[in-house]
Amino acid sequence: MNLWSLEWLRLWRTQRLMILAAVFGSFGLLGPLTVRFLPDLMESLGEEAVGTLPPMTAADGVSMYIGNALQIGILATAFVGAAALAFDAKPEIAIFLRTRAAIRDIFIPRLVVSSAAAAVMFAMGMVIAFVGTGLLIEWIDLGPVLIGTALFMVYLVFLVAVVGLVSSFLRSVPGVALVSVGALIVIGLLSIISPLAPWLPGALIGSTDVLLSGGEFIYWRALIVTSALIAGMTTWSIHRLDHREV
After folding, report:
1. Could you tell me the pTM of the whole model?
2. In terms of DSSP H, where are the helices of the chain?
């Protein structure tokens, strides 16, 4: 059994894949359900409460899913990625791995498998949200949803690459996950600088809403920068881990 097969097996046996499936799947279901039934719930509370509720559209079913994925989903992805990439957290495991394979051969399968798991589970949640929105409210355009989903998946790969880089500085799994999420927040705050916003990875996560509202595809810059950052952080992470003492 090679390290790729071992990583997929480890992801399954530790139930981390099930955690991602549960998080993204449940939010994919809750998004359209909330949009469909929240107005009725608010109406049952009285007319005054209904007046405070903004008008909802079918696209809100997908938008609500993305909003939840940005919170709990990203946190779950960060912890799953940290559990895989912070292999130096336990010295005995680190020594076992490092004496049997090169750091690149250890790191790359863990990075790719964690990224793929998060991206696929997010896409699964989007399918649930899209179909649920169509069945409960009305069908929305598939094209913008597909493009927005692909861009969000790239952002998730970027997140796991950030986790990998942080793991080359820290050893604790919770510490790596939380610092990684904090780094994403800091990067997101840079978007308040208008000239920088279109170039930042965070521009990718709002693409679905923009495209569904009829906006143009303006994400080439963010896509190029994000891809370059993923490659750069991966290379730097391997270099640092290769020269770090256990």
Report:
1. 0.93
2. 3-13, 16-45, 47-51, 59-68, 74-85, 91-98, 103-136, 142-167, 173-189, 207-212, 220-242
